[in-house]
Every structure is written in C-alpha cells, then in structure tokens.
Amino acid sequence: MSRRAVFPHRGLPYLLLLPQLAVVLVFFYWPAAQAVVQSLLRQDPFGLRVEFVGLENFAALLADPGYLNALRVTAVFVLAVVALAMSAGLLLAVTAESRIRGAVIYKTLLMWPYAVAPAVSAALWLFIFHPAIGLVGRALVKAGLSWDYTLNGGHALFLVILASAWKQVSYNFIFFLAGLQSIPPSLVEAAAVDGANSRQRFWRIVFPLLSPTTFYLLVVNVIYAFFDTFGVVHALTKGGPGKATETLIYKVYVDGVLNLDLGGSAAQSVVLLLVVIVLTGLQFRYLERRVVY
Amino acid sequence: MRRALAREPWLTHLTLLVGVMVFAFPVYVAFVGSTHDLGTVARGEMGLRPGPHLVDTYGRAWRTGTGERVQAPPVRRMMRNSLIMALTIATGKIAISLLSAFAPSTAAASTRDGGMDCRP
Predict the structure, then answer these.
(1) Interface test with B, best of A16, A166, A171 (most B CBs within 10 A)
(2) Residue B88 burial by Cβ neighbours in a 10 Å radius (0-12, 13-18, 19+)
C-alpha cells in the first residue's frame, strides 16, 4: 500500500489555498493598501473632493504636538504595561513552579483572567477606582488624596496601565510556566549541588534558559500594549482627560472616525503598520535563531 | 516552631495568594455590585458584602435589559448574538486554515518533482 495518495488534479493545492488567500487579500492587503493610498491624499469629510498631497500628511503628523503627545503617552504606556505584566507573570510562574501544596489550584486560579476581554477588564477596574463608586477610589478620596482619574491625567494613565497589564499577566504566566517546565531539572539540581543559592540558581541558570520565552513574550506584549488596548482606553477614559491617555492606536480612531481627518488617520495607520512589520520581523528573525545565552 | 515554619514555604504561599487575590478581587467587586441596586452603587455605599438584589438584577438583565436608568438590549439577545458570531468565526477560521493546511500534501503527491513539496 502506498502512503502517497494520488490526486488527479494539478490545480488542487491552489484550489485549497484559495479561500485563505482570498480572506487575507480582502481583509488584510486590500485595507492596508487602501490606508497607504489614503495617507497620500487629502479628502474632505464628505468624500466630495480628493487631492493628492504626497507626504504632506506625514509632515503634518510630525509637526502636530498632539501626535508627539500621543507618541510620548504610548511610550510610557507600553513600557509600563510590558514591564508590569511580564515581571508579575514571571514572579508568579516561578513561585507557582516551586514544590508546594496546592500548586495546581494556584495555577488554575492564576490562569483564568486570560479569558477576560480588555473592555471587561476596564469595567472591572472602574468599579474599584472610580472616585465616587469604587471601593479603593473612595478610600483614596477619604484619605485626603484628590484621586480622580476623570480629571487627573496621571491618575488616568495609571489606571489604564493597571487595567491593561492586569489582563495580560495570566497570558505571560502561562507561557513562563511552560518555559520553566521545559528547563531540565538536572541543571538546577547540579547548580544546587555546587552550592548556588536560590537567587543564584534563578539568575544564572533559570533566567538565561528562559530567554527564548522572555523574548517571545516581549514582542507579544509590546504588540498587545500597542494595539489591543483600545478597548481598555475606550471603556475607561476615551483618551482623556484632555489627551492624557490618548495612545497612538486611540488617536487613529479619534482622528479618523470622530474627526474625519481621513488622510491624517491613514498616515498614522501607516506608521503603526511599520511598527508591526518591524516587531514581527524582529520576532521571526531572532526567534528562529534562538536567543543566545 | 521554627522548623515547622521552615518546612512549609509560607512566603511562596503568600506570594501566590496575593496574586490570586489581585485577579479575583476586581471580579468579586463587580459581582458584589451586581447584587446591589443602582442607588447603593451610585451613592458609593457598596461594601464588600453582597446585597439583596442578586436575583432581581440578573433576571432583569437577562430578560429585558432595562434597569432603573438604563435601557439596553437584553443579555439573552446579546448572548445569542455573541454565540452565533463566535461559532461562525471559529468554524470558519478552522475550516479555511484546514483547507490550506492540506494544500502542501496534495501538491507533494500530484507533482513529481519540484512543486510544493514541503515534506523534509
């Protein structure tokens, strides 16, 4: 019996690939190309007149203090979310991997927020930090701190970061756990026999061996913080107060959908598209080769 | 006494418990909120204990979606919409990627040399 099935038609593989290619073309390449074209045009909100303006939209973007503010906010936001989510995930994963009673229960209880949607996470934290409704918010106000994330930009940014990072910790936890389980225990035991204490064992043995996982999570978390946190910002602050929590992705929405500056919004989308391309490129390039340790 | 403490790693348990609390607390607070009426929540009188309106709130959200000052589609309807969306997307995605995953093997069998042979 031959393991090779014989398919009569040469075109069959192409036929099988067709649906996916069609989906990718229609839902990715077409809109992306449209965004690139739109970023070179200026159009009035009613779509009556269109004018080719070259790179003017991009030039306007760089001259716009609002955009520079969004860049700054995004930088702080992404750094904070990634640092918080990854360090908390790693800490919990390392702790849950130690030999203690009830480790399985802890692991289960730490994994489930993975299924929480960003907007839901925002609503949950609103219940805690709202200055008039929330438990912690009220306590802060009572303690004399003028806590109000609807008025204070710093408070708003803090809350958005917290809600975004909270949701992502369990994702990192799951991957760090898997990474830790793939480290041969004999290496750690050998280090213990050599007299390394638990801190040395972690930083000299475990942490370097985790670096492929860490790098993968770094890229995924940066992409998450850049692009998947729209729901959190929208549900909590809508970019406000003022523009204190307006991240790049939120500004694309505000400028394009609310203000109908289609060219400017498209130019921002193209910039973000480049960010994604660079991040994905980095991931493929370095993940394929393995991180060097 | 000290030996007993050393055997069970309390710091580890503490860290994990704090982690679990951080994840469970917001959900618990939202649950407590869902068992109070609007006035209690809006006045900021909600504590950490569930209130008396659990059945009422969930019943109304499920059936009509109307609250004291809100008018929304009933959760029943939204659940159905989400279910339809999720099932369609999941089956569609799997079906499409299943088809394209079959492509290399059919190509390897149909073309003798070159072609799309992806097997090592």
Answers:
(1) A16
(2) exposed
Tell me the sheet residues that pair with A42.
A51
* Burial (CB count <10 Å: 0-12, 13-18, 19+), residue B20: middle
CA A172-A236-A88 angle, to 5 degrees, is 20
B106 vs A12: CB contact, 8 Å cut-off?
A: yes
* Token pair 């050998």: residue: A190
Q: For the purposes of burial, counting CB atoms within 10 Å of the CB of B26, is it exposed (0-12), middle (13-18) or buried (19 or more)?
A: buried
Q: Provide the 3-class DSSP secondary structure of residue B30.
A: helix
3-class secondary structure, A104? helix
Question: Closest approach of chain A CAs to the CA of B105, in angstroms?
Answer: 8
- Name the one residue in this structure whose structure tokens are 């130019």: A267
The nearest CA of chain B is from the CA of A49 a distance in Å of 37
Whether residue B38 contacts residue B68, with contact meaning beta carbons closer than 8 Å, is answered with: yes
Tokens linked to B115: 């072609």
pLDDT at residue A6, as a whole number: 59
> Which of A 175-234 lie inside 8 A of B, CB atoms?
none
Of A4, A121, A133, the CB nearest to B41: A133
Task: Flag whether residue A26 sits within 8 Å of chain B, measured between CB atoms.
Answer: no
Give the model's pLDDT for residue A62.
85
A217 residue type, one letter: L
pLDDT tens per residue, range B28-82: 888 888 888 877 777 777 778 888 888 888 888 888 877 777 778 888 889 999 9
Widest Cα–Cα separation across chain A: 82
What SS3 class is residue A51?
strand
Positive or negative, the CA dihedral A233, A234, A237, A240 is positive
B11: confidence class by pLDDT, cuts 50, 70, 90: confident
Which has the closest alpha carbon to A112: B85, B1, B27?
B27
3-state class of A161 per DSSP? Answer: helix
ipTM of the complex: 0.73
Smallest Cβ–Cβ distance between B109 and the set A4, A98, A113 belongs to: A4
